[in-house]
Fold these 2 entries.
Entry 1:
Amino acid sequence: MQLCVALDLPTKEENLDLIHKIKDYPVWLKVGLRSYIRDGEEFLKDIKKINPDFKIFLDLKLYDIPNTMADAAESIMGLGVDMFNVHASAGKRAMKEVMERLSCYENRPIVLAVTALTSFNEDEFNNVYGSSIAQKADQFAKDAHESGLDGVVCSAYESASIKNITDKSFMSLTPGIRPFGEDAGDQQRVADVAFAKSAHVDFIVVGRPIYNSKNPAEVVQKILEQI
Ligand code: C5P
């Protein structure tokens, strides 16, 4: 299992300051919508300047018509990131087109599909998708697997079932991790590191419990020890 630190701070300077504090740890860094829209490709280069070994997950959750998604995936290819994601609810045709477009590249990034956002509770999810989270997450995972993606973004509670119905090597990345019982914030389906490990999660994403702490490096160290 690997740790992915979410860089969701209000300014680029604060994100860079956090990266400097944790630069000696073997972690992935997650660049999300806020940072990428504001700081762009330059920010990705700044990260690699601090430590070229950092792996970068570009969390833009693509959702559009198949051709537009494939075009975007090809542009992402040019950024040199190690992982990015799309929404499974964009459909199999869109996911297949993304993978087809990337198939001619030797070193393509890992591509994951978002199943159910971890901020949804059952009622909210049902309102949008007309299904229970567990049922739909399984179906989205199957769709992503059949479309040739490498794995899914899901909650730690869905990871085991998804691996059962797809493949053990089909990856799961789980946000909503509160390593030591910290405040859940807007997340609904939170889990701790031990639970994620028992569910054979491949990547845990941790944001606020790290960057809101007085000593982010210490929290990272503690999480890595548990992993
Ligand atoms: O601060 P926290 O640890 O809750 O951060 C979780 C991160 O994971 C945020 O950047 C959020 O956008 C992202 N994420 C999520 N749920 C998903 C996909 C991504 O919380 N399903």
Note: The mean pLDDT is 95.
Entry 2:
Amino acid sequence: MSQPNPSTKPLPLAAGGTLRGTVQVPGDKSISHRALLFGAISEGVTRIEGLLPAEDPLSTAACLRAMGVGVSEIRAGEPVTVEGVGLDGFQEPADVLDCGNSGTTMRLMLGLLAGRVDRHFVLTGDGSLRGRPMRRVGGPLAEMGAVIHGRKGGNFAPLAVLGQPLRGTTIHTPVASAQVKSAILLAALTAAGPTTVIEPAQSRDHSERMLRAFGAQLEVGGPGLTQVTLTPGASLRGQDVVVPGDISSAAFWLVAAAITPGAQLTVQNVGLNPSRTGILEVLEQMGARITVLNSRDVAGEPVGDLQVSHGPLQAFEIGGDLIPRLVDEIPVLAVAACCAEGTSRIRDAEELRVKETDRLAVMARQLGAMGARIEEFEDGLAITGSSPLHGAVVDSETDHRVAMSLAVAAGIATGDSLLHRPEAAAVSYPGFWDDLARLRQPT
Ligand code: S3P
């Protein structure tokens, strides 16, 4: 566990009060990365509305600019334009590409760069990213002919990519990961012959939807939509992309309103892609009061407004194929479990150990400091929600989703809390602390 940096200020989080009002969460992180990346390899200009102006997409944009792609300045509320260089137009960057904290940037970039023949790329990131496994991408890409070197047999960044001609093949991925699937599909765009990716369970399908909209030839099938085949040859054309609000950011407000006495919130313009809505199913299973309003389709993704209010909650049990559909929401679901009647169980979630932090260990440690009855297992957590949480000194341990989950927990604790490293939230939700201050009301 890394120590809090004394140069960043801990944030006092007051207990008590409630939450009321309307909030518009920032753009979906997964869709934002993809809009930038797919725009970059297309012919012509891509115009993106609602792009997430947070640290992770800024990392993707910076890497693209370093390879000669024109990406306009990213400012909240303003459209972003990407001047595509075509499928093989990346210039060799003169320096290392810095992916910051962003696993999506590094993994999708590996797929994009593997087939750029006779060019050399080096990718690195912050301390967290340099400790995250990359062979899960490098291994499948090597089956297509890619050459990627890195620490520990190519598993850890810095990674060097030596662009090679690639061949199409069939790849069974060992984990249901949209980052792995998307990296393979991006490499497949310039491979010789079609490539099929077969996942153990369906992961989020934003790449499939958006690649098709940009003109790629792609078929999805298999049991549970776990099989995707991409046939190369089509050139991609720049598009207008509208990015919906991120359900993974909305999740903090959904849980906060469900557990905070007197709370009533409306979260507007939330992406409701079925490969992402596991959180809604679990909250429903818990008896949470959630209504979907104004369901609509925006640029190929389902969108709606969510109304949620406080009520009694029951424990939940989750595992299996549901996990990839709510993988980023498990930290905040752990907070919800602390306020539910009975023991909640999270299984088959070992992937959380290789996210921005080991989220099973970090949530057990931090919620434990607030008095939660939480037991940690190799693949999950068991949380008994009987006694109320108390205020405590807690730490995001540099993880954005942990920072925001702990803020939700602190709101319903019996005393005030102090959060170390709150600035981590800016990785996916730079306005989170302002939104929290605005929505908090006296009871
Ligand atoms: C993402 C996929 C998920 C998710 C991450 C974003 C994506 O990771 O946790 O925050 O944009 O493809 P995995 O694909 O590794 O499960």
Note: Residues 30, 33, 104, 177-179, 182, 203-204, 327-328, 351 surround shikimate-3-phosphate (CB under 6 Å).
